[in-house]
Amino acid sequence: MTVDCLVDCELKKYTTFKIGGCARRLFLPKTVDELVEVLRDSDSCIILGGCSNVLIASGGIESDVILTKELNNFKFQDTDVIADCGVMVPILSRAAQKNGLSGFEFMACFPGSVGGVVYMNASAHNQFVSDTFVECRVFDLDSKQILRLEKKDMCFAYRDSVLSRKNYILLDAKFKLIQKQPEVISELMKKNIDARKEKQPGLTIPNAGSIFKNPPNDSAGRLLEAAGVKGMSVGGARVWDRHCNFIVNYQNADSYDVLALMNKMYKLVKEKFNVTLEPEVRFLGKASEEESKLWNMMLKKL
Length: 302
Prior knowledge:
Distance between the termini: 45 Å
Radius of gyration: 19 Å
Number of strands: 18
Number of helices: 8
Largest sheet: 5 strands, antiparallel
Helix content: 25-40%
Structural class: alpha+beta
Strand content: 25-35%
Strand order of the largest sheet: 6-7-13-11-12
Order of helices and strands: EEHEEEEEHEHEEHEEEEHHEEEHEH
């Protein structure tokens, strides 16, 4: 079995932030079996899906990278749907609507993959991935074995799951939806899409979605706006003018620009409200000394 591989491939063309240096090797598996083959052979790798909630270092990634975008198979069985980790969730949402199945409306315009939304238990409009999740198959990087995890094994929480704490790579997942009229589902999807357009920048403006997680019983966007971050910028990165929890790459920003701006936002909220914001975006790759300092400060490692 031969898996497509690109050498010294620039990653920014794959990310929604349009930021990121080169990967030593970039693998593009087309089937779950090919993905497992690469995972078994690799000593160190980073898995990327829709690349929508990541900031990749402009210095690149020294380890192997696996991009799951070609793992796009899914099937419906009555009210169940089984999908590969690389399936983009807007495609899945539209397919469910056509089949008269409800539960994926909130993902109608998410720029992410099944692997990404399960990893972070993505949510919007009071719907969570965990609401419909049944089970999944993961590859354990420690034992090099395929495991089957049920919902109780996933430790789902706000923007979190067991996948962020163990060396598990999602292969595919099963969800159980409920039957509704396609027209009713379509109406809710449109409502969600319209609401998202009002509150979030589209991908015509490069961004990585929400920058910080909402603290308990509050909104990161509210805190950031009250702290006065609107319009702030560093280099080519700027706080979006319509919602303060988004950073847009408006002028060829690099990873340092984004991290420096995030750090300023983080500090202002800490100083004004004594609230410690937690990054929602993931920073990956070969960081400079200054980038490591900025990132670790926000992770409270300094």
